[in-house]
Design goal:
The chain is built from six helices and eight strands. Strands 4-5-6-7-8 form a five-stranded mixed sheet, with helices on both faces. It has a three-stranded antiparallel sheet with strand order 1-2-3. Helix 2 crosses helix 3, helix 3 packs across helix 4 and helix 5 crosses helix 6. The protein has a single domain, classed as Lambda Exonuclease, Chain A (Alpha-Beta Complex), CATH 3.90.320. It is an alpha+beta fold. Strand 4 and strand 5 form a beta hairpin.
Length: 227
């Protein structure tokens, strides 16, 4: 169950010319963290994605992308229900829902078992005049206030392939500190594959500060070139 220590507010979202934006309390529409990361990803990353799509062809690559996104959406919904209600709900007979249910269970057993207190699920955060986004969870893990993001992946990932996720954590930590006067020193990425392989990255203070700096640099690049 959630301890409502922080007065979180829900921000509405919209898509404008392919850019996800959040409507903030001051009336500003700010680009999302994921939009900024997508625009500022490295040339190597862009090239790898393009090559993958060319190798598989537009139909198959689109199908795989759509299935992964749908699986992740369902998994997140089950985890949100678990955090708020202390149960996952019923996946029903749909095999795709059952798969996402099992992935959510795996994350709860391996990752969320270390949570001592929840403060919010699907938490809207923003940095005034700059950007906004939604983190999956804010919680105490081993007694440390932590930004938590849940990820689904089609296969196991090497550390080098989660650096964008670490930037996300840094971006959300900056927002939380700005809005609520906290000093977040820890982030967590909890990932599961359809085969129920669980991976976890705990981002401690020094590494978190590093990825905050990388994020802020990419934020400058975004505003210099895309906004």
């Amino acid at each position: 169950m959630i301890d409502f220590l922080y007065p979180y507010i829900k921000l509405s979202r919209s898509n404008e010319n392919g850019i996800r934006k959040y409507l903030c309390p001051d009336g500003q529409k700010l680009p999302s963290v994921t939009t900024i990361l997508g625009k500022t990803r490295s040339e190597d990353s862009k090239r790898a994605l393009k090559n993958w799509k060319q190798k598989l062809g537009p139909t198959l690559s689109s199908q795989i992308t759509h299935e992964a996104a749908s699986r992740g959406t369902r998994m997140h919904a089950f985890l949100e229900h678990f955090i708020k209600e202390d149960s996952f709900g019923n996946p029903g007979s749909n095999p795709f829902a059952q798969q996402s249910y099992r992935m959510a269970e795996k994350i709860s057993q391996q990752g969320l078992s270390k949570v001592t207190r929840y403060y919010g699920s699907e938490v809207s955060l923003y940095c005034p005049s700059l950007y906004a986004g939604t983190t999956d969870c804010v919680a105490d893990i081993d007694g440390e206030l932590t930004i938590v993001d849940f990820k689904q992946s089609n296969h196991e990932k090497l550390d080098a392939y989660v650096e964008g996720y670490k930037q996300q954590i840094g971006a959300y930590a900056i927002c939380h500190d700005e809005l609520y006067g906290t000093h977040i020193r820890q982030g967590a990425i909890m990932m599961c594959t359809p085969d129920l392989i669980y991976q976890e990255w705990i981002i401690h203070e020094a590494e978190l500060e590093k990825f905050k700096e990388i994020w802020l640099n990419n934020l400058q690049i975004y505003y210099a070139n895309y906004n």
